[in-house]
Amino acid sequence: GAGVSQSPSNKVTEKGKDVELRCDPISGHTALYWYRQSLGQGLEFLIYFQGNSAPDKSGLPSDRFSAERTGESVSTLTIQRTQQEDSAVYLCASSSGSGQGYEQYFGPGTRLTVT
Amino acid sequence: AQSVTQLDSHVSVSEGTPVLLRCNYSSSYSPSLFWYVQHPNKGLQLLLKYTSAATLVKGINGFEAEFKKSETSFHLTKPSAHMSDAAEYFCAVRMDTGRRALTFGSGTRLQVQP
């Protein structure tokens, strides 16, 4: 079956522009996570969606970052007024639940470069 | 609070020799622990996971890890390295409550010499 997909695979943008990153989770997965992988910070959690519950935004680094998810489908991560420090690989993961036994399946990531 | 420490940023082995990648964790409760592998320009792939069942966990591609509570360790091993094992390896612990997000270590780059 299809895994987690992300688009675009690469994005180059100018400082100050807004960008949208898309994640298509595995069908039926209720939990969706966004992580960021950067040279200086390693892999860090950004935001978590579980079904129709309010998202956990505690990992978002600033108010320039936001994310949406409609039901249990596609999610979009938006970064406004991009800065050079936003350059990183943004990874999306989905899971069929959030209990102890549920593993997260990762997409290939979107490499964002802010020039 | 939870944290993960990967003790080696880089490990180099010869093909056919054993692999040991070290991971120590800190968690307030019984943790769930994971090892992921990332090949260049690829996403993360789960190698194995520990979720309070057997302490010796077998994963894909011949990897295994042993959960040692007394040592707060979850080291990854493989008896015989293959060239295709060259990649970045991440140990992760999952939060005990709430969002179940993963907290990752800083990664260990495994190099396999012919």
Q: Explain this structure to me?
A:
The complex is a heterodimer of chains A (115) and B (114). Chain A contains no helices and 10 strands. Chain A is an all-beta fold and 115 residues long. In chain A, strands 2, 4, 5, 8, 9 and 10 form a 6-stranded mixed sheet that branches. In chain A, strands 1-3-7-6 form a 4-stranded antiparallel sheet, with no helix packed on it. Chain B is built from no helices and 12 strands. Chain B has 114 residues and is mostly beta strands. Chain B has strands spanning 3-6, 10-14, 19-21, 23-26, 32-38, 44-50, 56-58, 64-68, 73-78, 87-94, 102-104, 108-113. In chain B, the strands form 3 sheets. In chain B, strands 2, 5, 6, 10, 11 and 12 form a 6-stranded mixed sheet that branches. In chain B, strands 3-9-8-7 form a 4-stranded antiparallel sheet, with no helix packed on it. Chain B has a two-stranded antiparallel ribbon with strand order 1-4. In chain B, β7 and β8 (64-68) form a beta hairpin. Chain A binds chain B through residues 4, 31, 33, 35, 42-45, 48, 50, 56, 58-59, 91, 93, 95, 98-109, and chain B through 32, 34, 36, 41-46, 49, 51-52, 90, 92, 94, 98-107.
Please describe the biggest sheet of chain A, giving its number of strands, its sense, and whether it closes into a barrel.
6 strands, mixed
Stretches of chain A where pLDDT falls below 50 for ≥5 residues?
none
Structural class of chain B: mainly beta
| Overall morphology of chain B | globular
Strand content of chain A: over 45%
Q: How far is the first residue's CA from the last residue's CA of chain B?
A: 41 Å
User: What's the SSE pattern of chain A?
Assistant: EEEEEEEEEE
Fraction of residues in β-strands of chain B: over 45%
Q: Report helical residue fraction of chain A.
A: under 10%
* Radius of gyration of chain A from CA coordinates: 13 Å
**Number of helical elements of chain A:** 0
Cα-atom Rg of chain B, whole angstroms? 14 Å
Report the end-to-end length of chain A measured between terminal Cα atoms: 37 Å
Shape descriptor of chain A reads: globular
On the 0-100 scale, what is the average pLDDT of chain B?
91
Quaternary state of the chains: heterodimer
Mean of the pLDDT scores of chain A? 92
Largest sheet of chain B: 6 strands, mixed
**What is the share of helical residues of chain B?**
under 10%
Our count of helices of chain B gives: 0
